[in-house]
Amino acid sequence: MAAATTTYFETGRSWNARVAERNTELMAAQAMRRRGTRTPEFFFAKHFDNTRLVKAPDPVRAREMRSFAAAVALLFTLIMVYGLQHFSAIEVSYHVESQKQTLEQLREQNRQLRLSEAQLTQPGRIDGMARQLGLGEPQPGQVVHPNAHPDASAPSLAMAAAPVSQQVQ
Length: 169
Known about the structure:
The chain has three helices and no strands. By secondary structure, the chain is an all-alpha fold.
């Protein structure tokens, strides 16, 4: 609906004349917009004033609105907590799955390393490589085991002795 406008220059005409002119303008504009199908649109002047009306406070309605707002806030909080837990569980399950894959890869790598160690520590292979390098079998007394107690009468290649401290008098 369109509204009639009043300017300072139209003070000589009556209100009803201005409303009738505005209705005529609206009818002409609608005819052009609707391509021949005319729907009448009229402006009716309202002669009542609601500016002095004041809404009376309603404590029952205010309490109902507060309780409704609290219920909606509680429901929203519960839904957000549920969503947080749900998405955390999904994230943790993805993390667990990636850790399982990493564990499987590490197990396979460990198996490969054990196979490689077993192959590299084969006595026949070591003996063959030593002979290629020109090494021979050790002579008796050349092999020293680290956890064996040395015989005091056996010759030793080198011995580390604690330094004797000089006493100053």
